[in-house]
Each structure stands twice: as structure tokens, then as C-alpha cells.
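Backbone-to-sequence.
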């Protein structure tokens, strides 16, 4: 009896440690952190500075909870950049000789942010605290504002930077013009200034020191605007990787590399030209190579080049050559992904050199398929291109081709959108696509014109995520029709039937990237079918925090929330099971040329014998296989960094 009781208690403890493991670990980490802070403050007599770096998420438009997942896709590049810049200031002695900086880093897409708790922890020892809300986009601005105001209530100073703040300052400079002042208020900036939150417009390189000097002198200003002084990136090192953060993401081995900033193209819906300018500013080859080597040593072997348009990087050729030289010097080959424009394939040697250097996937901003739409938004460089030839040029070198489209241009109707999707599927034949709703983002020419002319735009900035719903009116469609047409486009492209068509094609001409495309396709289908979000916004398995619900939604009671969560999680689990069925069907229909399909393990062989009986039976085995995989990887699945 006693033994049974003892076993029961021990098992319960183990279950608790397994489920709450990360929380327990974090508790010990915090105790260690506080002890060392006390040591630094009392024994070493150092000044303590807390830097809280937060990448805010957004509110879910449907239920008001913060969009947050158990696992994200990859770490955020802006956060890594700001972290590195602060560490550089510290190491160069700019923050003072006798200073100890304590970082708290939180990507809200995968971790809960609790301002009261953070404030409390930062105050256990006398110190100064600065909260930096980084890379804040328009749709994230309402959430960022709420976090900043909550910190303010706790007496802690916040500073917000990123494309929303920069975009508004770039298009509506505060020069006394009443329209500009109205925009400033409508875009939520004035309210923050009135409440003592600091705004930062422009890029941080070379300018962060001024902010810190003011902060340390207790004289932080309400606005820092460096849009007129963009930094030269030639000698700017690539950012350091964020400490203790990688287990929060599914892609552990992927790193972001920003090769160049700005864009010379005049697309009217885009914010990049106004915010970063049209003069291209590449990162020098020396710092690029040093960064690659450092990342390799830290276990990063795949790169996402975040620059908007790799073909306009003045140093693209030198960059590729440097990567090829590294390979010949014995370094492993980099796999990398770029974003670029339609005419890139016409640049002599571009596709081949990129492929030789390790390009495995290209994301191309076609945006407007029809000439009349391309003309309307100044995307004139699309007009002379042959899109099919472009896709073929990349495919010929075994590269996965991913095209991006926007729907809702002036000449679009639900019918033309449906026709365009068919053209994309049958004529262009990309491997993957993104479809976005045309959205006037602050900082773009479209937004400026619409605001000045008084055209209707949704006043809720949270909705400006290019996916969930249109935020402006269209002459040919109601907002509902427009939204439905775009969501239908996603459904048609990622239907099981079209996925089979794509994977057959891939299996016949690019077996090397079969699993890369298969995985991504599974991810995109998961995002749109299960998470009901844009693949760029979604992570894996949604989590909700009862207390962080948007103020416009009522606070749920514990039981109500628990039941709601249960229902939503059940819906997700059912969605994943259905996704499993669909993907099994895709694989069974395309496995002939997949190298793995040629020498399958016994359960896959069994699965194949069941093909005639439909995917449902076969899927039971695949599900069992996946469960086994998840079980063997359970530590990784459960090991989410704990919330602040
Ligand atoms: C790469 C990228 C992505 C990647 C991010 C990869 C990653 N994990 O890092 C992915 C593909 C996931 C992505 C997704 C989205 N993106 Co995006 N993305 C970009 C892109 C091309 C580069 C971003 C980047 O890394 N820049 C490098 C960093 C260092 O620059 P930065 O963020 O501007 O930060 C600098 C300054 O702003 C400033 N700063 C920023 N924050 C702070 C804070 C403080 C306190 C201070 C002092 C300074 C400061 O200092 C930094 C260093 O100089 C930009 C366009 C661009 N040219 O920047 C679009 C861009 C940021 N994305 C945009 C959008 C709309 C999205 C999506 C909503 C699209 C969608 N429908 O899903 C999602 C949102 C996802 C999310 N949860 O955030 C828009 C935002 C516009 C706006 N006003 O909102 C941009 C500007 C593209 C555009 N053409 O308009 N994106
Ligand atoms: S949409 Fe692409 S090509 Fe056009 S301005 Fe923006 S970054 Fe440049």
C-alpha cells in the first residue's frame, strides 16, 4: 500500500516536472540570475541595466487572444539585430565602465509577455530598465501599444521601433501640416507620445548610442527620427544569434541574413522605398563571410536572405563567388533561400551562379499577374517578362519556385481572381504560392494617397496583416466577396488535387527538393487549413492566454476559457488528422520518384499495399509512425521556453 502511494506521488511529480519542466528550469534560471545580479550590484558595485527586448505579436481578429504558438518557424531577425547592437555598445564600453546589462528576450509569437511580472523581476534589485519593442509592423502596433502602456503603468520606460513607426514618419513628417498631424493621431502614434512612450523612426545602426546616452542620463526623448540618415552597412557585422532561444522554433538550423537594404523599384503598395530609400546599401563581403563562418560554428546551415530583392543587391555576384570559394575551401555547402523580382532570371548568370552557391528556393514577388493591374501599381518591370520562362529558368537548376501574388487591384473581380488562380496552376506551375489581400500599409504611396483623399480605410490597425480581411473598399467587390475570393484562392491552390499535381512534377524533374517542397507544402496547408492563418504568420499549435485578451473582447472566466481552449484544441487536432490524410494521399500518389519511396521501411511498404483501399486505412499507420516520432522527440516538443 505504502509502496503504491509512494509510486503514485513520484509519478505525479514526474508528470508535473515533464509538463511544467520548462517552468521549473526557468525558475532556477531566474534564481541564478537574481543571485548574480545581487552579487554584481552589492559586491562589485555595478550599475544594473535591464534591457527587455520584445517582438510583439498581434491580436487574433476572430477571438481577441494574442496570436501565439507552441513552436515558431524561426527566430526574428530584427530582434537578433537589436540584441547585437546593444551587446556591441556594451562591449565597446559605451554604456559605461561599471555596468552590468541583464537581457530579457521575448518573441511574443512563442512566449507570453507579462509586463507586471517582468517589471517586478527587474525591480528586485535597484536598477534601470528599458523595454525595447522591436520590428513592430502595422498589424502588431495595437498589441505593442498595449504592452508599452502596461509597462508605463508599472513605471517602466518603453521605446517602439519598426516599419509602422518609420512608415508613418516617412509619409507624414511632423512639419505642422494638419493632415500629417491627423495621420499621426489616426495611426496611434500621438497617443503613445502623450503617455510617455518613446518612438524610434529609421534604422538603429549608428544611432542607438544616442538613445542609450539619453536613457542613462534620465533624459530619454519622446521621438528619435533618423530616417534622413540611413546607415552604411558595408562594415556592419551580421547579428549574433539570440541566446537560449532556438528551442522555441521548429527550424533549429536556419538563420536570417540581411544582405542589403532599400529598393529602387517604385511599387505603390510597398513601404520599403519610403522607409529605407531607393539607394541600395549592401553589407560588405568581408563581414558577410565572417558572419557565415560564425553561423556555421553555431550550428546554422540554412539561410534565409531577408533582403527584399536579391537581384538588386549590387554585390550579389561577389557574394555567390565568396560562398562557392568557401565550399572549395572545405566548408559545407550553404542551402539558402532568397526573395527577388520577376526580371531576375534575365540577368546573365544570375540563376546559375546562385544555384552553384547553394540556392534551393526562390520567392518571387510577381504580385500583379494582369498587365492593367501591374501598370496601376507601377510594377512596370513585370510587363516585359515571360513568367513561365522565369519559373522554368529556376526549375531547370533544381530550385523550388515560390510565387507571391496580391489580389484586390483595381481591375480585379471575384471572377478574374478565380481565373488568375487557374492560370497560375496550369500555366505558370510554381511549387508554392502566397496570396495576399491588397492592403494600404502606412509608409506606402497607396496609403498616403488614400489618407489624403479621405478614402475609407479600416481604423483598426490590427487588421492590416494582408490575410484575414480587406481593410479598404473595392469598386468591383464587397469586402466579403474580396475576402472570400482570396481565401478560395488559397483553398484551390493547396487542394489535395493540386498538391498531387505539383509533387508529381517535382518528383519527375527535381527529386533533390522533393522533401523540401513536400514539407513546406504541408506547412502551408497546415497554416491555411488548420491554423487558418497566413503561413508567414502561423506557428505550430496555437496557445492562448486568458489574461492577454484584447480589451475590446470580454475577459473569460476560468471555466469558460478552459472549455473554449478545449474546443479549439480539439478542432486543431482534428485538422491535423485531416491534414495527415491529405498528405498521405499526396505522397502515395507521387512516391515513385521519391528516393525514400524507393526503399521504404516495412510500415510504409504496408501502407503502399493499402493504397487501393483509400488513404484512410493507410493513414492509421502513418499516424502511428508520426506518434512514434513525436514520442521519441517529446523533450523537444514540450521544451518550450517558459513565459515571462
Ligand atoms: C524578412 C521579412 C519577413 C520574414 C521575417 C523573418 C524573420 N524571422 O526575421 C517573414 C517572411 C516571416 C515575414 C513575415 C511578415 N511580414 Co515581413 N518582412 C521582411 C523584410 C523583407 C525584412 C525584415 C528584416 O529582417 N529586416 C532587417 C531588420 C534589421 O530591419 P528592421 O526590421 O526594419 O529593423 C530596423 C529598424 O526598423 C530599427 N528598429 C526596428 N525595431 C526597433 C526597435 C527599437 C527600439 C529601435 C531603437 C529600432 C528599431 O532598427 C532595425 C535595425 O536597423 C521586411 C522588409 C524590409 N525591407 O525590412 C518585410 C516587412 C517588415 N514585412 C511586412 C509584413 C506585412 C509581413 C507580414 C504581415 C506578411 C504576412 N501577410 O504574413 C508577416 C508578419 C509576420 C510576423 N509575425 O511578424 C511589411 C511590414 C509593413 C508594415 N508597415 O506593417 C514589410 C516592411 C514588407 C513590406 N514590403 O511592406 N517578413
Ligand atoms: S514590392 Fe518588391 S520590388 Fe516593389 S518596391 Fe517593394 S521590395 Fe521593391
Amino acid at each position: 500500500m505504502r509502496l503504491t502511494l509512494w509510486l503514485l506521488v513520484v509519478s505525479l511529480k514526474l508528470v508535473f516536472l515533464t509538463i511544467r519542466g520548462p517552468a521549473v528550469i526557468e525558475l532556477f534560471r531566474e534564481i541564478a540570475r537574481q543571485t548574480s545580479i545581487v552579487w554584481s550590484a552589492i559586491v562589485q558595485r555595478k550599475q544594473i541595466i535591464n534591457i527587455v527586448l520584445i517582438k510583439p505579436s498581434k491580436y487574433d481578429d476572430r477571438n481577441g487572444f494574442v496570436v501565439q504558438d507552441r513552436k515558431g518557424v524561426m527566430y526574428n531577425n530584427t530582434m537578433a539585430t537589436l540584441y547585437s547592437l546593444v551587446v556591441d555598445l556594451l562591449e565597446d564600453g559605451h554604456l559605461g565602465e561599471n555596468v552590468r546589462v541583464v537581457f530579457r528576450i521575448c518573441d511574443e509569437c512563442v512566449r507570453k509577455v507579462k509586463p507586471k511580472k517582468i517589471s517586478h523581476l527587474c525591480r528586485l534589485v535597484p536598477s534601470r530598465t528599458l523595454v525595447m519593442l522591436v520590428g513592430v509592423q502595422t498589424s502588431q502596433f495595437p498589441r505593442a501599444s498595449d504592452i508599452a502602456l502596461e509597462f508605463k503603468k508599472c513605471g517602466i520606460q518603453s521605446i517602439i521601433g519598426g516599419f509602422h513607426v518609420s512608415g508613418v514618419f516617412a509619409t507624414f513628417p511632423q512639419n505642422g501640416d494638419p493632415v500629417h498631424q491627423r495621420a499621426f493621431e489616426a495611426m496611434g502614434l500621438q497617443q503613445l507620445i502623450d503617455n510617455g512612450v518613446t518612438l524610434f523612426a529609421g534604422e538603429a545602426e549608428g544611432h542607438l548610442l544616442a538613445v542609450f546616452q539619453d536613457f542613462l542620463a534620465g533624459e530619454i526623448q519622446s521621438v528619435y527620427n533618423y530616417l534622413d540618415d540611413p546607415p552604411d552597412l558595408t562594415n556592419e557585422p551580421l547579428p549574433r544569434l539570440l541566446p537560449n532561444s532556438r528551442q522555441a522554433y521548429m527550424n533549429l538550423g536556419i538563420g536570417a541574413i540581411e544582405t542589403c537594404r532599400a529598393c529602387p523599384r517604385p511599387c505603390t503598395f510597398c513601404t520599403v522605398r519610403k522607409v529605407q530609400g531607393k539607394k541600395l546599401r549592401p553589407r560588405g563581403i568581408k563581414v558577410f563571410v565572417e558572419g557565415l563562418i560564425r553561423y556555421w560554428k553555431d550550428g546554422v546551415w540554412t539561410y534565409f536572405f531577408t533582403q527584399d530583392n536579391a537581384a538588386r543587391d549590387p554585390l550579389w555576384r561577389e557574394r555567390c563567388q565568396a560562398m562557392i570559394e568557401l565550399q572549395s575551401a572545405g566548408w559545407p555547402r550553404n542551402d539558402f533561400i532568397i526573395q527577388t523580382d520577376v526580371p531576375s532570371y534575365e540577368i546573365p548568370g544570375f540563376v546559375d551562379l546562385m544555384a552553384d552557391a547553394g540556392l534551393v528556393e526562390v520567392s518571387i514577388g510577381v504580385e500583379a499577374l494582369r498587365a492593367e493591374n501591374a501598370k496601376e501599381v507601377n510594377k512596370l518591370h513585370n510587363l516585359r517578362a515571360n513568367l513561365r520562362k522565369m519559373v522554368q529558368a529556376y526549375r531547370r537548376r533544381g530550385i523550388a519556385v515560390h510565387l507571391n501574388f496580391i489580389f484586390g487591384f483595381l481591375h480585379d473581380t471575384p471572377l478574374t481572381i478565380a481565373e488568375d488562380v487557374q492560370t497560375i496552376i496550369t500555366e505558370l506551375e510554381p511549387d508554392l504560392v502566397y496570396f495576399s489581400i491588397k492592403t494600404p500599409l502606412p509608409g506606402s504611396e497607396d496609403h498616403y494617397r488614400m489618407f489624403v483623399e479621405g478614402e475609407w480605410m479600416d481604423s483598426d490597425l490590427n487588421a492590416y496583416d494582408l490575410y484575414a480581411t480587406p481593410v479598404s473598399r473595392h469598386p468591383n467587390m464587397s469586402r466579403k466577396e474580396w475576402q472570400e475570393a482570396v481565401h478560395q484562392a488559397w483553398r484551390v491552390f493547396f487542394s489535395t488535387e493540386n498538391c498531387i499535381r505539383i509533387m508529381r512534377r517535382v518528383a519527375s524533374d527535381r527529386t533533390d527538393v522533393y522533401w523540401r517542397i513536400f514539407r513546406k507544402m504541408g506547412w502551408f496547408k497546415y497554416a491555411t487549413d488548420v491554423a487558418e492563418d497566413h503561413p508567414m504568420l502561423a506557428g505550430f499549435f496555437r496557445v492562448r492566454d486568458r489574461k492577454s485578451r484584447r480589451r475590446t473582447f470580454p475577459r473569460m472566466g476560468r471555466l469558460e476559457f478552459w472549455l473554449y481552449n478545449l474546443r479549439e484544441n480539439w478542432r486543431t487536432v482534428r485538422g491535423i488528422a485531416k491534414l495527415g490524410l491529405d498528405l498521405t494521399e499526396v505522397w502515395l500518389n507521387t512516391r515513385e520518384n521519391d528516393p525514400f519511396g524507393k526503399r521504404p521501411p516495412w510500415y510504409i511498404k504496408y501502407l503502399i499495399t493499402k493504397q487501393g483501399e483509400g488513404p484512410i486505412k493507410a493513414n492509421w499507420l502513418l499516424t502511428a509512425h508520426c506518434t512514434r516520432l513525436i514520442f521519441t522527440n517529446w523533450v523537444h516538443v514540450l521544451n518550450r521556453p517558459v513565459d515571462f
